[in-house]
Design brief:
With 406 residues, this protein is an alpha+beta fold. The chain is 71% helix and 9% strand. The protein has a five-stranded mixed sheet with strand order 1-2-3-5-4, covered by helices on one side. α1 runs antiparallel to α4, α4 packs parallel to α6 and α9 runs antiparallel to α10.
Length: 406
């Protein structure tokens, strides 16, 4: 049987002991005077057993079997003592005082152990009914009315005090539980804050890795291609063309340096519209590689969110960088448009192709970076490639974070 945590303190049990002990002493002394020890000691033993059960109740494990034994024993002792005292030489008021005190103690203890619960109510009704029944059996007339009135009055006062005390205790326990819950919540928040800090650091490291790859790595790769073109033109004695490419390389180096500083310092400048940025990127690509780039752009300036546009532009740059370094293509097509809240981007080439499922070695993070950027937009990236059939990089993303199709 589940029971409420007891709150009856030691002083209350001491009070019960003193009260019932005084009544027992008041009953046993007249009996001893009238008939000697032989008449007094049985009553004394009954009082000791009744009081002892209160103290034994504190230390016993509160199981169903114990509660049944306890209440049966206490009820039997109360009834026995009432009838013994009523028929003995003890003063007539002793048995009535004992009955009222014992009933009130039992009801008060039930409220203490079980709180303002149904169990306490049933026990209170039982002992209240027991007291009224015994009074009705042993008294009549005016004596019965007076005894019942005293029992109801004294018992009502005790019950009211115990109920109010229980309510205060419940409020206190709830306050303690709330404080413990808040403490646990604070601990969980602290742990969550640590986790968020670690994830933020990890995300920032990944972001910086992408930014450095998309600025330094791509910029240096473009410079290498331009320097190789300069070398080839100088070997063929085409100095004018070589000088033009050197000028382009210088411009590309300055642009790469500026982009790198912006990425490292986390600077943000107002970006150009996506269509214009793609057009400039394709022109630089064609100038550096000599590969023509066909554009099909259907974008309005305010259709695409800046963050989505930034990720899409980096995907275009990475795809073109891969074409320049690996594809051996002769033509590239870029298609980009927005409709019904979705951005559609496609970069195709007619190069030699590759196996997108093949693991790349360290230092080759282009596809990984493109997929990470697609995931950050809330979209999806697909890469289709086959030998002698070229490569198709396709991004579908919401035109604004949290919108469009997934």
């Amino acid at each position: 049987m589940e029971h409420r945590r007891p709150f009856i303190s030691l002083p209350i049990y001491i009070f019960i002991t003193l009260l019932l002990g005084a009544l027992g002493l008041s009953a046993c002394v007249p009996l001893w005077q009238a008939g000697g020890l032989a008449r007094a000691w049985p009553v004394a033993l009954l009082f000791i057993a009744h009081i002892g059960l209160y103290w034994l109740n504190i230390w016993q494990p509160k199981r169903t079997g114990w509660w049944a034994l306890y209440y049966v024993a206490q009820t039997a002792l109360i009834v026995t003592l009432v009838f013994v005292l009523h028929g003995s030489a003890a003063p007539s008021s002793i048995w009535g005082s004992f009955l009222g005190s014992a009933i009130i103690c039992q009801i008060g203890e039930a409220l203490g152990w079980w709180g303002n619960s149904r169990t306490a109510l049933l026990l209170g009704l039982f002992y209240g009914g027991l007291g009224l029944t015994l009074l009705a059996l042993l008294l009549d007339g005016a004596g019965l009315a007076s005894a019942v009135g005293n029992l109801l009055l004294n018992g009502g006062v005790v019950v009211l005090l115990m109920v109010l005390f229980n309510q205060q205790l419940i409020a206190r326990e709830r306050a303690i539980e709330l404080a413990e819950s808040l403490e646990r919540a604070n601990a969980q928040l602290a742990a969550a804050a640590g986790t968020i800090a670690a994830l933020t650091l990890q995300a920032e490291r990944q972001r910086m890795a992408r930014e450095l790859h998309d600025t330094l790595a791509q910029g240096v790769a473009g410079l290498v291609l331009q320097l190789e073109a300069v070398k080839a033109h100088l070997a063929a004695d085409r100095s004018a063309r070589a000088a033009a490419i050197v000028d382009q390389a210088l411009a590309r180096a300055r642009s790469t340096l500026a982009e790198s500083r912006a990425a490292i310092d986390d600077l943000r400048r107002a970006p150009a519209p996506l269509a214009e940025a793609i057009r400039e990127t394709s022109e630089r690509f064609s100038q550096a590689t000599g590969i023509p780039c066909q554009l099909d752009l259907a974008l309005a300036e305010d259709e695409i969110d800046q963050d989505v546009a930034g990720h899409a532009l980096h995907i275009v740059r990475e795809a073109l960088s891969n074409v320049a370094r690996h594809a051996q293509a002769t033509q590239v097509a870029i298609r980009c448009g927005a409709q019904q809240g979705s951005l559609e981007l496609e970069v195709c080439d007619n190069g030699r192709g590759f196996d997108p499922r093949q693991e790349r070695g360290e230092g080759h993070y282009g596809l990984l970076g493109m997929r990470e950027r697609a995931r950050l937009t809330g979209g999806a990236l697909s890469v289709e490639s086959a030998a002698a059939r070229g490569t198709r990089v396709h991004l579908r993303a919401p035109s604004a974070p949290g919108g469009g199709a997934r």
